[in-house]
Write a structure and sequence with these properties.
alpha+beta; Beta-Lactamase; 4 domains; seven-stranded antiparallel sheet; 18 helices; elongated
Length: 611
């Protein structure tokens, strides 16, 4: 039986029974009126009603459906109910509707989301009922839908609140910090596992007890002050104190205490988070001890030491720095150096922002080998050597610098005294060598034997060569080493004076000679030049001797070359006393003598001085 058939049998016109003798005309009017009332009711009922065929197409919709969907009725008719369903909700509705059309079920209810014309959606509770003919065949379905968005939002809000609450519970339970709540009388109300680990009391042992069970003797007076602040609505952040464990041991903790309010906003208690800071306190203690030891060490060092920040502002200085500079530096305002004024070694003014400490900070490098002069407020000046070194953090960023100023006044005085002594020694040595050379020269002139005159003249020439090397060596501030370009010309000039007929060309000279090398090398050069001039040169007008001293990859090479015929070293080795002297001195220098006849050349190769 369809719905129209059931309606015709159960409804009668008002005031009359449903009998066959009813007049046709009044009955038709009554049915028409009834249908009109049903149509009005259908349109204005407070729920959405949709009639759909077995394919799910909308055959009829009431006004409430149009209001919910934001469409005109004409826009919805013929469209599938699944087109307006959010994709993620289609499968469940379609599955139930398919069973309904197949006759497996006559009714089902589902919650799903329906899209509006403007793109938004709302939650609807849909009840789908079958309408069948007398044979039970599916004709259409009537779907009644209610807007349940408000309920869904409330459910979602409740679920979210429950989830947040559960998250908070999980956080509290899993926190490594002790999280405790207490009422305004200081009685413990909650106690998390972190509190049990930190203080040793179980929740059963702590809850209901006064929080003062955690206070060591002498600190009970802290609690009234904390509760008073909580009652005023204050929050206490990072309050560092000491508490007692169950076993009686003490620990340093940091407390954060916050008021707890009820639903009416009234303060009913407090929550506190306690964090163990024992390790941090111990580290701070060790740091203070380390800083104290460092301060004591700096104070004990007999040299001016100070530090700056990354901008060059003075942050620390020791007492030696005060004595050195003749003033007390101003922390945070003095820059770059603790001194009153600075000068370069030549006496010119050195601006503080150009001093070695400023360079070290600006260029990020340690400065070594610099010298400067500090002037005190009383006008006295102090020569010194600075040792500025940048300080960096773990990431390599410059955080400041440290500098040590070494007073070299005594060293300067010692150097001056040493220079005077060296000058005196040089003067006396020069006079003695000149006297010895004069005695040898006089003896050679008065000697009756030609052999004696020869020996005395050779000795005089050797003394002259040694004197030339000595003048170069002791004419410098550093008497331990000197340059080859200073040594070679002086020795060559001395030999020219002894052999005026010779044409001696002094060539390239570079390298560094030590004091130990200078004298033997001067004697070797004298012997080789004398031998070349006397035995190698036949025509002094057209022939000459060339000499050079060069550094060749860490070894020095002395080369004497003439325009003569040369000689065979092996043939004259045993008979020429001068060459025997050269060979002996070459061994002393750990060198090798090499002689060639074409070209005529004698060369000595020996190790250079390491700088």
């Amino acid at each position: 039986m369809n719905i129209q058939q059931r309606t015709a049998k159960t409804l009668s016109p008002p005031g009359r029974s449903a009998t066959p003798d009813v007049a046709p005309a009044p009955r038709e009017e009554w049915l028409r009126a009834r249908e009109d009332r049903l149509a009005v009711t259908y349109e204005h009922v407070g729920v959405g009603i949709v009639e759909v065929d077995q394919a799910g197409r909308m055959l009829r919709v009431n006004q409430k459906v149009c209001e919910l969907m934001g469409h005109e009725a004409a826009d919805l008719l013929g469209r599938s109910i699944f087109d307006e369903t959010l994709p993620q909700d289609v499968a469940q509705d379609l599955g139930q509707f398919t069973r309904q059309v197949a006759g497996e079920i006559d009714r089902y209810t589902i919650e799903k989301r329906l899209a509006r014309k403007d793109g938004s959606y709302f939650w609807a509770e849909v009840t789908s009922s079958s309408v069948r003919d007398a044979s039970g065949n599916f004709l259409y379905a009537v779907r009644v839908q209610h807007d349940i968005s408000s309920r869904k939002e409330a459910e979602q809000a409740r679920c979210a609140a429950e989830e947040r609450a559960q998250q908070l519970v999980s956080i509290v339970e899993s926190s490594d910090d002790a999280i405790i709540s207490k009422d305004l009388d200081g009685i413990i109300r909650t106690w998390n596992p972190g509190a049990e680990r930190l203080f040793g009391h179980t929740a059963g042992e702590a809850i209901g007890k006064p929080v003062t069970i955690l206070f060591p003797p002498g600190r009970e007076d802290e609690e009234p002050g904390i509760l008073a602040r909580i009652r005023r609505g204050e929050r206490i952040d990072h309050y560092e104190t000491v508490r007692r464990r169950k076993d009686g041991s003490l620990l340093d903790i940091s407390l954060t205490v916050s008021p707890v309010r009820n639903g009416e906003g009234r303060i009913v208690g407090a929550s506190k988070i306690a964090r163990d800071i024992t390790d941090r306190k111990e580290a701070e203690r060790k740091l203070r001890e380390s800083e104290q030891r460092l301060t004591e060490l700096f104070a004990a060092i007999p040299a001016a030491i100070y530090t700056t920040d990354a901008q060059g502002k003075i942050t620390y200085f020791n007492q030696a720095a005060v004595e050195f500079s003749g003033r007390t530096p101003a922390l945070g305002s003095d820059e770059w150096c603790v001194t009153w004024k600075l000068f370069n070694p030549d006496g010119t003014l050195l601006p503080h922002d150009q001093c070695p400490m400023a360079i070290a900070l600006k260029e990020g490098r340690a400065v070594r080998g610099a010298e400067a002069i500090a002037e005190r407020p009383d006008g006295t000046r102090v020569p010194f050597i600075p040792f500025p070194t940048p300080l960096r953090d773990s990431s390599g960023r410059i955080t400041g610098a440290i500098n040590m100023l070494v007073d070299i006044s005594e060293r300067r005085q010692a150097e001056t005294q040493q220079r005077l002594l060296l000058d005196e020694l040089n003067h006396r040595t020069k006079n003695n060598m000149q006297m010895l050379q004069s005695l040898l020269f006089s003896a050679a002139r008065t000697a009756h034997s030609e052999e004696a005159r020869k020996v005395l003249n050779e000795a005089s020439a050797r003394i002259a060569a040694m004197a030339a090397a000595q003048r170069v060596l002791y004419g410098r501030s550093d008497a331990t080493r000197f340059a080859a370009e200073e040594f070679l010309p002086v020795v060559c000039q001395t030999i020219r004076q002894l052999l005026p007929e010779a044409r001696i060309e002094c060539g390239a000279a570079h390298g560094v000679l030590s004091n130990d090398v200078a004298m033997p090398l001067a004697l070797i050069l004298n012997e080789l030049l004398t031998n070349a001039v006397k035995h190698g040169i036949k025509d002094h007008a057209s022939q000459g001797v060339r000499v050079s001293l060069t550094d060749q990859g860490g070894r020095l090479a002395l080369c004497v070359e003439d325009d003569g015929e040369g000689f065979d070293l092996e043939q004259v080795r045993k008979t020429a006393s001068g060459l025997q002297l050269v060979l002996g001195l070459a061994r002393q220098l750990r060198g090798t003598l090499c002689v060639t006849q074409n070209p005529s050349r004698a060369s000595l190769d020996f190790p250079a001085v390491k700088i």
